[in-house]
């Protein structure tokens, strides 16, 4: 039987490159592309079929920032499939990004510039807002919507003949210093993206502890610095044009400057070929590209406290109970 692979955030960037690369690895899979609206989903499907005309590609409409949309999509997927073999939790947003040029200058003077350029530590801030569910938009889209989707799809993910996989797109920008259990939605800070990605790392660790025995395994990847629609919004286009030659040079010293979506999907595709039982649940798998353009994967230990992860998971369960009360008609 063909494997069923669901990819969120599939309409562009790493998500679209991942879809194409997965079909190059195994043209027999059934690929389900999840996009924010039907128009994007159909355009994505057409773009994939243009290169892989014999592929089995279906679509599902889901806005991860809307609980009603997530619940409707989960219900549709439960009706359509008997199991899911891979779920790539790739969709994400970084609204209103701002660069702290003063911090960059300070990094240059203190010798920390390369570290700052590869992790965006102390460099990037965002302006977040509440969504229609009364949740912080970045937290809801990057993490909580995915969490609810998984919870609603557990019947397709657990107890199958072969293990099923969750593969989260995290970031090297996921930092403990940006995350707080008392403000896990990051309503009071300006690093909502970093906080949401650290929350992703915590969630993956606990999911392994809870669900490995039921045949569900979770992994976390970092695509590196990829030039995508999200990245291009950080600076004006003319600045990116000036910076690109420098960024290609930086790649000789910073291997996580993958730059293209194809390169950024390296770790995602590598995990597709691995047996989950042998993977390190506390590792983040980084897509890397050498200065000469060779792609490879580098596992790095995540800076996560397992006790904090467990406490955070309990808070997610409490929030799930609170928020889903109003959507009884969409629950089985």
Note the topology:
Layout: E1 4-8, H1 13-25, E2 30-35, H2 38-51, E3 56-61, H3 67-80, E4 86-89, E5 97-99, H4 101-110, H5 113-119, E6 124-126, H6 137-152, H7 154-157, E7 164-169, H8 192-211, E8 216-222, H9 229-232, H10 237-250, H11 261-264, H12 266-272, E9 283-289, E10 295-301, H13 306-324
Parallel strand pairs: 1-2, 1-4, 2-3, 4-7, 7-8, 8-9
Antiparallel strand pairs: 5-6, 9-10
Helix pairs in contact: 1-12, 3-6, 4-5, 6-8, 8-13
Protein name: 3-keto-steroid reductase/17-beta-hydroxysteroid dehydrogenase 7
GO molecular function, one term: estradiol 17-beta-dehydrogenase [NAD(P)+] activity
Subunit structure: Binds to the short form of prolactin receptor.
Strand order of the largest sheet: 3-2-1-4-7-8-9-10
Radius of gyration: 19 Å
Q: How many H/I helical runs?
A: 13
Q: Quick one: overall form?
A: globular
Question: Major beta sheet, specifics?
Answer: 8 strands, mixed
Provide an overview of this structure.
The structure is a single chain. This protein has helices at 13-25, 38-51, 67-80, 101-110, 113-119, 137-152, 154-157, 192-211, 229-232, 237-250, 261-264, 266-272, 306-324; strands at residues 4-8, 30-35, 56-61, 86-89, 97-99, 124-126, 164-169, 216-222, 283-289, 295-301. It is an alpha/beta fold and 332 residues long. β9 and β10 form a beta hairpin. It starts with a strand and ends in an 8-residue tail after the last helix. The model has no long low-confidence stretch (mean pLDDT 91).
């Amino acid at each position: 039987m063909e494997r069923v692979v669901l990819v969120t955030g599939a309409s562009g960037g790493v998500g679209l490159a991942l879809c194409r690369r997965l079909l190059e690895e195994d043209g027999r899979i059934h690929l389900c592309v999840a996009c924010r609206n039907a128009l994007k989903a159909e355009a994505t499907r057409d773009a994939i079929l243009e290169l892989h005309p014999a592929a089995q590609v279906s679509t599902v409409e889901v806005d991860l920032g809307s609980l009603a949309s997530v619940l409707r999509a989960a219900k549709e997927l439960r009706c359509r499939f008997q199991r899911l073999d891979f779920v790539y939790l790739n969709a994400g947003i970084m609204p209103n990004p701002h660069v702290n040029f003063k911090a960059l200058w300070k990094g240059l003077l203190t010798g920390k510039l390369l570290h700052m350029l590869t992790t965006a530590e102390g460099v990037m801030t965002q302006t977040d807002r509440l969504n229609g569910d009364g949740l912080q938009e970045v937290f809801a889209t990057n993490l909580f919507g995915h969490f609810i989707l998984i919870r609603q799809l557990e019947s397709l993910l657990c107890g199958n003949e072969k293990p099923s996989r969750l593969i989260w797109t995290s970031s090297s920008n996921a930092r403990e210093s940006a995350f707080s259990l008392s403000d896990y939605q990051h309503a009071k800070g300006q690093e909502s993206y970093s906080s949401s990605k650290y929350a992703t790392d915590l969630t993956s660790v606990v999911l392994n502890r809870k669900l490995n025995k039921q045949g569900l395994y979770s992994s976390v990847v970092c695509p590196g610095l990829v030039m995508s629609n999200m990245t291009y919004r950080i600076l004006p286009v003319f600045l990116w044009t000036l910076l690109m030659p420098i960024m290609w040079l930086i790649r000789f010293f910073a291997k996580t400057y993958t730059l293209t979506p194809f390169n950024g999907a390296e770790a995602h595709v590598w995990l597709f070929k691995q047996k989950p039982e042998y993977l390190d649940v506390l590792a983040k798998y980084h897509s890397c590209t050498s200065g000469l353009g060779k792609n490879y994967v580098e596992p790095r230990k995540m800076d996560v406290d397992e006790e904090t992860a467990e406490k955070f998971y309990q808070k997610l369960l409490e929030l799930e109970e609170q928020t889903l009360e109003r959507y009884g008609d969409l629950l089985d």
